[in-house]
Amino acid sequence: MNKRIDFTNLGGFPATQYTFDWMQDSYRSCFVAMAALIGNKVIVSGMATVGPQTTSGWITYNGELIPFIGGVTQPTFLIEEVAEDRVFNDSTTKSVYYKKQARFGGALDFTELKRVSDVLAFFTAFNNLVTAYNDFVTNTIASIADLYSKIKVLFTGEFPIGDVNSTDKVMLVTHSQNILSDYLVTGSLVGLSGDYNNDNDVIWSVREVGANSFKLCLREVSPPVQNLRFDYVLIEK
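^ that's the sequence the OP posted. Answer follows.
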């Protein structure tokens, strides 16, 4: 703990209410830190279900370690603070001893309390999760890199389309690469006009892929004037 009192000094230690407050604050702050480490609404120990009964134990709730009084298992529980009175030297009676505890009843949902076997088990599970995630990322990156290494780009080009002024239009795209193997054509219709609502009214497909050309098939879905360009990549199958 971060606080301590040296009681070994002789001469009559001046114990006052300040002394006891110092001692209480010392251990309470430590337990608050421990509760924060464990987490909120966690069963720390005990509270085993035996038939219709739940045994006593300890829980964390809102940053505090709180004893749970066992009893007949119910769907709800409550947290209460029980006070004890003492008669002071001036004959007044005041509440001075307070004990916070949890028990069945009330309105708090008992199923919200989750059990953690111990902190070491938690960190072991967390580390296993981190390791699995790192392995997944590493393997995924390796798979993507392997896939990318197998992609052979044969040619990249641009083809001006302008306006698609009919419902269906076929345009011959030449590249003069004399590609004798099968290849894929992948590409994008690039809008060049000032109105994207006009440029996005066209769909496309490819057919009759040859050694030095392919046909670009266009369909206009509405009549406004477009200004388009087809950017494409030829990839070996």
